[in-house]
Every structure is written in C-alpha cells, then in structure tokens.
UniProtKB/TrEMBL annotation:
InterPro entries listed in its UniProt record: Zinc_finger_SWIM, Znf_SWIM
PROSITE patterns: ZF_SWIM
This protein's name: SWIM-type domain-containing protein
Gene Ontology MF: a single term: zinc ion binding
Start and end residues of each SWIM-type domain: 358-387
Tree of life domain: Eukaryota
Biased composition (Low complexity): 304-316
Region (Disordered): 303-322, 407-428
Keywords (A to Z) from UniProt: Metal-binding, Zinc, Zinc-finger
Amino acid sequence: MPVAFLIHSRKKEKTHARFFEFVASSFPKINKTSVPFVTDREIGLVNAIRKNFPSCDVLMCWNHLIKDLKFNLQQMGADQSNTALYVSHLKDLLRSDSEAEYMTLKDELIRKWSKPVVVYFEKMEKDILTHSGKWVIDKYQNLYDPYSGITNNACESMNAVIKRLNKYRELPVDCFVLSMFYLQNYYINEVQRGLAGIGNYTLRTKFNHASIPKDEINVPKQLVKPADIVKHVMSEIDNVRDTCSKDHVSVETESSKIEGANILPLVSETSDGTENPTMSSPIAEENVTAPSQIEGTNILPLVSDSSEGTESSSMSIKTSDKNLSQKSLAKLTVDNGQVSFIEQHKAFMVRGMQGKVYAVTLLPKETCQCPASSQCYHILAAKLYIGDTDDSKPVVNLKALSKRNLKRNDKKSGRKKPRPNDGDIEILPAPDSEEAQLIEPPLIWKLLDEFYHIYLPATLYKMCAWMLRSNFIIGFLTP
C-alpha cells in the first residue's frame, strides 16, 4: 500500500534523508519492529535509510542487480549468449540456501569467467552477501519469491499507474499528485473493507480485535479504480484548463474594453438604437493584418458581412467538447469558417481557438507560425479545408505462419535423434579465465614455441608466444 511520496528533481542523499526523517517521525514503530526496506542499489538512498532506521535491514532488488550486470557486460562487448549465461549464473548464486553453498558454487563458476567479469562481480558481491542472497531474505516470512527472488515492485497497481503517467512526455506535477491521491483513496477503502471482512484483504487472526462492522466503512467521495485513475485525472485537468482558458479570454476582453482598445463590439446597436445582444464577439483584434485587408488578393474572408452591415459572429468558436483531439479542433476550426487561403502568398490564414491568426503552408513543407513542436491542428485544419482527409497509416505485411518459419531448434525432434541444444550446454571457459590457464596446450603449440625460441629474436618470440597463448592464431593451426 502506498504510504508516502517524495517528488524531487535530483537523486541526492540529502533529499532522501529529509524524506526518511519524515517517515521515521510519522511511523516510529518501523524502527522498533525492524521492518526491512527493499530498494535498488542507489547509495544515497541506502545511506539515508540506514541513518534514520539503524535497526532495519536494507534488501536490494534482484532486478536491479541483473540489470546492472547486463549493462556492464554490454560495455565489455559480451554477445547475447554470453550475457544470458552470466545472468543465469548470477541467479543460481542468488538462489543459494546458505552462504557456504554460495561460496562453493561461486568457486566453481568463477573459474570459467572472463577476468573483467570477475573484477566487476567482486565489486557487487558485497551487496549479494549482505542484502540480496536467499539466506538473507529468508529471515523474513513470505518475502522470498522462488522465481523473482525479491523486487521493489510489489505494488503492481501503483506501478501500473506510474507507467501510464510515463507515457506523457511532459507531465504536470498536479496530475501526479492527483493520481497518487486517488490511489491512496482506493487502498484506504480496500483496507476498511478488509477490516470489515468483505474486501480483497484478509485480517490475520491475531489482529481480530481491529475488525470493524460494515456500517463503519467510510467510503471516499471520489473512488477510482487504479486502471482508470490516469484517464480520470487527465480529463479533470483538461476540464479545469478549458474553464480557466475561457475565463482568461473573457477577462482580457473586458479589460481591453475598459482601456478603450480597438476591439470588435461586444454589443451591437440596431437601427432603432436598441442593443442587440446576439451580435457578440468576445475576441479582440490582434495587431495582425487581416486577410481581407490585402488588396488584389483572391481570398475567402474570415468574417462575412451580413445584410444589415454588421459583422457576423462567425469569429466566436463554439466549443462543446472539453476533451478535443487535434483532429476535432481542426474540424471545428473549419466548420466555424476560421480558415482562408491567400493565393498571392500561397499560404493559409488559420484563426486559432484563442483568436490569434497563424500563417500555414503545406508545400513544399508543412509549416505553421504557432509555437507547437509537433504537427498542430492549424495544419490539419488547412488540409481539411482543401479536402485532404487522407490519414496515412503504417501498413504491416503479415508473414505466412507455418512450420517452416520456426527456428530449427524449435522443430519437432525425431524418434532417435534429439534436437540441437536439447541436452546440457557445454560451457567453454573464457581464454583469460583461471581455468583456461590450467588446460594443457596442444603438442603443436609446444613445437612452435620451441621453434620460435631458437630461430627468432627475443622481441618476435615474445610476440608469437603471446599470440599462441591468447589463441590469436588458433584458426591457422586447426586442420
């Protein structure tokens, strides 16, 4: 269950320490009962936990150990098969039942490893012995998993919410805070249901005194399932932004009217002097030359003149959907007559939702004057204006699935002959490993070594000897 959160921009030990100081002061019993902390291998985080919870153990996630090993193997130039083998060896070591069994298995495996891998493993071995081994985790009941060992993603629903939030390139802080708030509300309700004996959680026998009747369950006002939290929060944020945007436009219009700015009349007068409230336009004129002011151009006017000589209210865009997509905004812009084409400049003039006019070109390159980094709805509106509604979607050619497309090792084996790799895989030691140094070299290597020692200068002899020992010319010596 998510209990506390920290939003920070840098992974500094001082930041982590401040957070765990708050946790220690809010939950002092954690230190007394020695509750273990499961975390990654971040040094600042581990030090902050040890400082504020000295009696609690810090356990390290297996996934991060494996991820770090894979990263370093890639830096060393290991291929996929070698990486998979080293990872399987690491998992076997982590699953050892005791430290003595771990040491025995390590001495057996490490002899075949390459020296750079041995050097890196010696650096991470301390974390395995004190924070990650099975014998360390087994001290705590129901904490070790035979498949994944121990990880810091025990809260799957919280991880699912965070993954959905990560899909957004830029996420406002308020969206994250609201998401965590709804997630906590959900778990608070689940805990209450468990105390009443009707939820997904079951109360242990020794805590039966904490049970509550069903009528005491306090259901939060807004209860959202974890799968729907992000969608609900983003729709709420869009609604608030839309409301604020409309209020901002109306406030700007009123202030411009008071200051005597050159704006379109909010209320028009009829011929008899009475006010006509239906002819209203809340959008102020910008310091932009309107398309109709350019002489000698064949354009479609943004604002059409009515029979009474007053301007039509086509400039005010009607927005009913508060969650408009780019395509919806483009269609709405075209439907409201906010697009015109200037033949002289070979460009479109598109009036946006806030009343600003942008120049848009489609050929030879799609451009727009708005600050959007990706394709904006102004460009889509210009395309819709000329009838271009083609949505180019990627085409995927599916291959015919048959037994012939299976890998050779995946095909059925014969009655007497097994498939390749059906048996145990033979592991050849790395050329620079400890075990490779103990292998007796072939007789031809000895003869060549004596020949080079007699007939070659000392420098060339050392070079040839190194080439022989490092298997550099093994391809030339094999028949």
